[in-house]
Amino acid sequence: MKRVKMVLAYDGTNYCGWQFQTNGITIEEVLGRALSELLREPVVVIGASRTDSGVHAEGNVAVFDTENRMAADKICFALNQRLPDDIRVLSSEEVPLDWHPRKQNCAKTYEYRILNRKIDMPTQRLYSYFCYFPLNVEKMRRAAIYLTGEHDFKSFCTARGQVEDTVRTIYRIDLIEEREMITIRVVGSGFLYNMVRIIAGTLMKVGMGVYPPEHVQEILRARNRQAAGPKAPAKGLTLMKIEYETELKKNIIGKNEDWEYHLIQTEIPVKGKAYLFINRCRPRDFDRLLARVTHQAVRNGARQVYVCDKEEKERLVPGKAYGLYTFRHGHDMLELKKKVSPPEGRAEDREWEEVKPWQVSDLCALYNTVFYTVPNSATVTEDEFRQWMANSRWHMFFVRSQGKIAGFLILVEKGEEVEIDSLGVLEEFRGRGLARKMLKSVEAVAAENGIKTLSLGVSSINAAAYSLYRSMGFSGETVTSRWYVTEEGKRESVSRMPSDDLAGDA
């Protein structure tokens, strides 16, 4: 058994869309029949985007499984001999058996073409929408800016599209004017039913002067299909390409007037952990945001998702179902403080050395090694270390013991207070009192420089570090953040989660 991926182009004029229908012929039906005849076995084709009746494609993607021994890259040539002239397989290749065209992170590009002239042109009638009213393209560009980014596009989804979550991300909208042809190019992570056609219809209303560009923002806020413009005809829409991610994004940031979050995926490949900071979120959107972003992390390979709601510590309810997931309280991050006391006698010799810019990679590797198993210690990148080093308030040191690098120390100046951001000791040097010695040295140096207070953070479940800091006189225990983690046994239905597109075009 092998799975074959195909890239497809087709003229959708004579078809009732992609997905099999009882009332007319479809692209899926023609492909499946031709493949079954070619390979002499029943073949089921799975498409990435199920375009609607009359919609075209230059880069749709589909897969099928086969027992046939024909080379995957040769199938496209043999298959094209059996297909009608308005359908072509541009390429074919073998992919892993678990590769699914609708369950991969990707960017989809659609184009909607508008022929903007006084008299229609017959040669363009099947692949563009004719609009005789002069369109102001500059106003359409200004309106399109409001649609870029992550938003709830409920106003831009046909009501019969049965989807629970109407949030999507548009990476870019370009309006290209070439003589009398206006092309609206939309690139996004996924689209709702008829979403691009409704965007096109709405932008045309802006171009005609019916809506001012700023009204598009009000349409988004309304979350009501009746607020947006009409759905543009299908013949102007073409699915141009689908580009799949080749490596996992380390950070995903979602930000608009309703919410802001940061999903850190750096540790998914190695530890299976993802960290979600919800910086702010309106109450009406909180449950859906948590369910959606948690699912995205799990689909990307996370076995555990840690969540910190920075706006309200108690808003996330343990045991409550958020989509497919429930959470339990994991731990709290505590801030401890200590008043700096003058050192008794002579301060101990400091075995520190400041990290030089060319040593950042060594510090990064050391940091991630030491904190690999420490609760809530996310992996840090070299770029992040360089950003910290560029800030004059941050100070980074290697800690030495008997001439060898044994750990590191990171301090942050905060006026009359110094925060011990990180203190780590390599495993082979632990149990020798090195961390205690370093804390004493930091306090001595702080006293010499007039610093009044030391502060540091520790996880409530990091018993060894907590005990050390308390024994050194740190106290206060202010909860700076509360962390929840996905419960085990709640991911068995991940494969049943709705994909980006329902039946029908974008």
CATH topology of the largest domain: Alpha-Beta Plaits
What proportion strand? Answer: 25-35%
CATH architecture of the largest domain: 2-Layer Sandwich
Strand order of the largest sheet: 11-12-13-14-21-15-20-19-18-17-16
Mean pLDDT figure? 91
C-alpha end-to-end distance: 33 Å
CATH class of the largest domain, anyone? Answer: Alpha Beta
Give me the number of helical elements.
11
- Mind telling me the C-alpha Rg? 29 Å
- Overall number of structural domains: 4
Residue stretches low in confidence (pLDDT < 50, at least 5 long) are 491-503
Query: What is the CATH H-level superfamily of the largest domain?
Result: Pseudouridine synthase I, catalytic domain, C-terminal subdomain
Instruction: Count the E strands.
Output: 21
Shape: elongated
Bin the helical content.
10-25%
How is the main sheet built?
11 strands, mixed
Structural class: alpha+beta
List keywords for this structure.
single chain, 506 residues, alpha+beta, Alpha-Beta Plaits, 4 domains, eleven-stranded mixed beta sheet, ten-stranded mixed beta sheet, 11 helices, 21 strands
Write a compact overview of the structure shown.
The protein has helices at residues 27-39, 72-80, 137-145, 195-208, 215-222, 268-271, 283-299, 360-370, 382-390, 434-448, 463-471; strands spanning 2-10, 46-47, 56-66, 87-95, 106-116, 129-131, 149-152, 167-178, 181-188, 237-244, 251-255, 259-264, 273-281, 304-309, 327-339, 352-354, 394-401, 404-414, 417-425, 453-459, 475-486.
